[in-house]
Amino acid sequence: MGLQNLRLLLLIGAFLGPLVTCDDPEDHPHEDHPPGPPHGHWSYTDITDWHKAYPACGEKEQSPINVDTGDTTFDPTLKPIEVSGYDVSPEERLKLKNNGHTVVLQLPDSLQIIGGLANTYRAAQLHFHWGSQSSPGSEHTVNGQKFPGEIHVVHFSSRFQSLDEAVTQPGGLAVLAAFIQEGPKVNEDYQHLLTHLEKVKEAGQSTEIRGFDIRGLLPQQLDRYYRYNGSLTTPPCYQTVNWTIFNQTVFLSEDQLDILEDTIHHDHDHILQMNFREPQSLNGRLVLSSFRPPVSGRKAPGQAPAPSASAPDPANGPSDRSGEGAPRDDSQTFSTGDMLAIIFGVLFAVTALAFFIYFRQNQKKNPRSSDKKSNVIYKAAAPEDNMA
Ligand SMILES: [Zn+2]
Asked: Residues 219-267: pLDDT tens digits?
């Protein structure tokens, strides 16, 4: 192999660093080197420069995005996400690696998405984005709300032979994303993975862990989600990702979130935190939803609590990790329906009060009408009486 070819391969490997585990030392970050093409490295401290070395990062269909639930389009053809082969036998070994940007779990391509997308997608890896103990770190946001963390399970279309081949092709990738927030209980499915983080503390380190049920890392409900076309959220930012963002969140205990946020280093002295990109402009893209947002603000029928996590314990009080808006206990975010219910409730109450005052004034003018109608009550309905 010629030197030119070798250099090209190293460069491509570095470009795909966040996505593809590569044992090459070039995959390790060297933050002391200037970012850019000569080394093919990037970091979360130079996000505004990403497009210089990776032009796609400056294009118009980038990820992540903010999902404005009031602007989503209900699409009844979006079927529940269905996965197969996710329960990996303990005999199998899965590689867990710190690539300097996140922690990546390599997945066999026997794990597949077989429903909810136009064709079958095969799994390649999963990884996480997080913040710190005082600041939430999800990439996507919902109505401006950021969550403590986010899991991405990366798949490639079975139309292609490999992730490498699919990553540059339109519709080549499908990523399943779920928000992670704090709950009162230990999430046993996550525990298996989190206990190994200490072994991959330094960038470039990897270990092998027993197979386990990857399905348990996702929310229980896979039928309610948002869908849009976007990109890798890290360089090279290729716009080839069909995104699925689940409405239901997963819960980790406070200690588990601490482990996720405080263990991984991006170099020997620096802890890796806040490894997320801010939401990008939609630029006219549609965000579809597989479900109708609740109009009444009541829980949708059949809305089950998260699988490995019940609702956060209110006795714990508000957490720093709840970020800019405290997430609701049923994993639903504050919807347009809630807002409308409150607005209409208040309007109704004001109208009723005005009528009541008018009625009382008339009573004074005409005492008899009071005798006849003393039992007629125009009661101002509290918001909770009708719509909330
Ligand atoms: Zn990601």
From this structure: 999 999 999 999 999 999 999 999 999 999 999 999 999 999 999 999 8
* DSSP states of 179-215: EEEE-SS--HHHHHHHTTGGGG-STT-EEEEE--BGG
Distance, CA 104 to ligand 1 centroid (Å)? 10
Domain end position, chosen among 316, 331, 346: 331
Distance 9 CA to ligand 1 centre (A): 23
Backbone angles phi, psi at 70, to 5 degrees: -75, -15
Q: Which of 107, 250, 238 is nearest to 165 (CA)?
A: 238
Judge if 76 and 225 occupy the same domain.
yes
Residues 323 and 344 in one domain: no
- The verdict on 327 and 343 lying in the same domain is no
User: What domain count does the chain have?
Assistant: 2
Interval 13-65: pLDDT, tens: 344 444 433 333 333 333 333 333 334 589 999 999 999 999 999 999 999 99
Could you tell me the distance, in angstroms and rounded to a whole number, from the CA of residue 233 to the centre of ligand 1? 6
Exactly one of 101, 140, 155, 266 is catalytic; which is it?
101
Q: By the 8 A CB rule, do 107 and 175 touch?
A: no
pLDDT digits (tens, 9 = 90+) for 173-226: 999 999 999 999 999 999 999 999 999 999 999 999 999 999 999 999 999 999
Distance 142 CA to ligand 1 centre (A): 17
Q: Cα(19) to centroid of ligand 1, in Å?
A: 8
Q: What is the CATH number of the domain that holds 284?
A: 3.10.200.10
Distance (Å) from CA 139 to ligand 1 centroid: 8
Domain extent at residue 190: 46-295+308-331
Q: Does residue 36 belong to any structural domain of this protein?
A: no
Cα of 60 vs centre of ligand 1, distance in Å, is 18
Q: Which two tokens stand for residue 2?
A: 């010629």
**Is there a contact between 173 and 154 (Cβ–Cβ < 8 Å)?**
yes
Whether residue 245 sits in one domain with residue 115: yes
Q: Is 101 a catalytic residue?
A: yes
Q: Which of 227, 191, 236, 223 is nearest to 209 (CA)?
A: 191
